[in-house]
Amino acid sequence: MTETDADAAPDAPEAAAADPSLETVLEELRTLRAETERLDTRVTDLEDELADRTETVDTLEARIADLESQLQDSDRRLESCESETERLDALTEATRNRTGATKARLEELQARELEKGAHLRASNVDVHEVDVPGDRLERVTKSDGERYVRLPNDDDPLERETTVALAHADLLPIQQLARLDADLRRSSTDALPTRLAARLWEARADPAVDDDPWTEGCKSVREYVTAGDLKHWIRRQEPGTSDAYAKKLVSRTIDAILELSNHRLAVRKRTQRKNGLEYTERRLLLPADAEIPGETTASSSTPSDSSSKPSASSGTPSDSSSSDRSNDREPDAPDPETADVLG
Question: Compositional bias (Low complexity) at which positions (predicted)?
Answer without folding.
Answer: 9-23, 297-324
